[in-house]
Specification:
Elements lengths: L9 H8 L2 H10 L5 E12 L3 E10 L6 E8 L5 H9 L7 E6 L15 H13 L4 E6 L6 E3 L20 H14 L24 E7 L3 E9 L2 E8 L6 H17 L4 E4 L7 E7 L11 H30 L5
Parallel strand pairs: 3-4, 4-5
Antiparallel strand pairs: 1-2, 2-3, 5-6, 7-8, 8-9, 9-11, 10-11
Helix pairs in contact: 6-7
Length: 325
């Protein structure tokens, strides 16, 4: 494939890359499969400058055909490619190959799920659980492929053994909190580690921001079919700090979110809690929203949640600051 010199659009690139002899050499070179011939090929164009081919191949020493999916995207690879390979168009494929070109793609601008290190980290985590999925970059001019070495370990995958996937809800949960939301935490965000816990199904779709000031507390962000809500509670038991804070800021919160969306609970035998209804959007909105819509929603949620934390801490510190003698 090194002799190809002209420019291609994504459909032409994939059709040339997946010509029988080219594809046969590629699969053998990287020990992905050993095809003798290809029974059929179906192409699908996607609006985000992607093209997908699914082919059924006969392989040496296999009594059944092997279904292979290749998803090629102009620009950076995205989590959406991985999701569709695992749970959507590629769910019945025996081998799933994600490819990208690293060309400029305006669809990727400002979108945290379009990230080579992020996608390589996800795929490496999947390979560690025997999922037959790989990541390659492809040169736009020459169609020369490159196996992305960091985080991947294709040789750890045994195609003769079964594998399991995280639930698609868990995958989407990790995508939102670990990527869309956490990417605004510029200091500590590590995209390659975003999916390290994706096989832990014990999570309950929440995110915790800790309050660490004159008192200890937490703001728990919860998202379910009823929407997104913030639950702020005091953990320190020595004094009703949260009540004192809310005596100052409650009206500002009601002005921002509406009277019906803010509630303060202060009952005997239980530490005080604040409840804020942030959004009516159900969690399954994530499965139909565009990456741009999710990015904008995550940005607002991030700044509101952390803004609440700074408001609580700033208020209590002002209330308890020492007056000079």
């Amino acid at each position: 494939m090194d002799n190809v010199k002209s420019k291609y659009n994504v459909d032409e690139m994939l059709k040339t890359f997946s010509e029988d002899e080219n594809l046969r050499q590629f699969l053998k070179k990287y020990e992905i499969a050993v095809p003798t011939d290809f029974i059929s090929k179906k192409y699908c164009h996607k609006d985000d400058k992607r093209c997908i081919v699914i082919t059924d191949a006969r392989e040496e020493n296999f009594s059944h055909s092997t279904r292979i999916m290749i998803d090629l995207k102009l620009g950076s690879p995205t989590v959406n490619q991985v999701y569709e390979a695992l749970y959507d168009i590629g769910k019945d494929c025996d081998i799933k190959i994600i490819c990208f070109t690293n060309d400029s793609n305006d669809i990727d601008d400002g979108i945290p799920v379009a990230d080579e290190y992020l996608v390589a980290g996800i795929i490496g985590e999947m390979q560690n659980h025997n999922v037959p999925i790989l990541l390659f970059s492809i040169d736009h001019d020459t169609l020369k492929e490159k196996y992305i070495e960091y985080y991947q370990n294709w040789h750890a995958v045994n195609r003769l053994k079964d594998y399991r996937l995280p639930s698609k809800e868990k995958f989407m949960e990790d995508t939102f909190w670990g990527v869309y939301f956490d990417s605004y935490n510029f200091t500590f965000y590590e995209p390659w580690n975003a999916f390290k816990g994706c096989y832990n199904e014990n999570g309950n779709n929440n995110y915790i921001i800790y309050i660490d000031s004159i008192f200890y507390g937490e703001i728990r962000l919860l998202w379910d079919e009823n929407g997104v809500r913030f639950e702020a509670k005091q953990i320190t038991e020595s004094e009703e700090f949260m009540k004192k804070v809310l005596d100052v800021i409650m009206q500002d919160l009601k002005n921002k979110y509406g009277d019906d969306s803010v509630e303060f609970e202060n009952v005997v035998g239980r530490l005080p809690r604040l409840y804020i209804k942030f959004s009516d959007k159900p969690f399954n909105w994530l499965f139909t929203a565009t990456p741009r819509q999710i990015t904008e929603f995550a940005e607002k949620m991030y700044h509101d949640a952390w803004g609440l934390r700074w408001m609580i801490e700033g208020t209590i510190e002002k209330l308890y600051e020492k007056v000079p003698a």
